[in-house]
Amino acid sequence: DQQVKQNSPSLSVQEGRISILNCDYTNSMFDYFLWYKKYPAEGPTFLISISSIKDKNEDGRFTVFLNKSAKHLSLHIVPSQPGDSAVYFCAAVLLQGAQKLVFGQGTRLTINP
Amino acid sequence: NAGVTQTPKFQVLKTGQSMTLQCAQDMNHEYMSWYRQDPGMGLRLIHYSVGAGITDQGEVPNGYNVSRSTTEDFPLRLLSAAPSQTSVYFCASSPGGGNQPQHFGDGTRLSIL
To answer: Residues 72..91 of B with a Cβ closer than 8 Å to A: which?
Structure first.
């Protein structure tokens, strides 16, 4: 039972355009969400996060939107750059108890020149 | 500036063999975790530790043991390797709970024949 789902295995975007990566979750109790970026042969690196009490968080070219009623979050990258080509994972956590991260399957983003 | 160091980077085992995947961090983080990454499955939590002497199971703990005798080290032991344990293993650390960004090592690629 996949509690966090990234339904698009891959996404291709032209350089300079907006990239939108989506993530859905089933557990309404999740109260914190994070995005990680992963290059080949490296470990994931933290990108941006959002608390469930907010609906938007912005950091430079990266913005995360949270729609709690739809149990949906999205990561916007604008403008997209070739260095953004990577696999992006969303993750969710319950801040009570063990605070274990639950990851989605990942979306491979390719930025075309 | 080492961060999280995993050894070895690659390993091939025969079914039934045992081995230990090493993980060390130099950031004095309390939280450490082991994940496995499989195609189409994202990262799944195997075991985690909230401090020296304290460990607990994650989503997929069967076939793996951990211990945390020091803050710095969190080894993962495969007692009797099975082909289903062929995967890429990532160790991560963070200063605190789930809303703290995790720092990942570069992974160990393990093949069980």
So the answer is: 90
A1 touches chain B (CB under 8 A): no
For residues A101 and A30, what is the distance between their CA atoms, to the nearest angstrom? 10
Cβ of B87: how many Cβ atoms within 10 Å?
21
Using CB atoms within 10 A of its CB, is residue A78 exposed (0-12), middle (13-18) or buried (19+)? middle
Query: Across B1-113, where does the E strand assignment appear?
Result: 4-7, 10-13, 19-25, 31-38, 42-51, 54-57, 64-66, 76-78, 87-94, 103-104, 108-112
Q: Which of A41, A89, A95 sits opposite B43 (nearest CB)?
A: A89
**B48 lies within 8 A of chain A by CB:** yes
Q: How confident is the model at residue A62 (pLDDT cuts 50, 70, 90)?
A: very high
State whether B98 and A89 contact (CB < 8 Å). no
**Window 31-50 of A, Cβ < 8 Å to B:** 32, 34, 36, 41-46, 49
B39-57 pLDDT, tens digit each: 888 899 999 999 999 999 9
Question: pLDDT (tens digit, 9 = 90+) per residue, B4-28?
Answer: 999 999 999 999 999 999 999 999 9
β-pair partners for A48: A35
For residue range A70-94, list pLDDT tens digits in order: 999 999 999 999 999 999 999 999 8
Whether A93 and B98 lie within 8 Å, measured CB to CB: yes
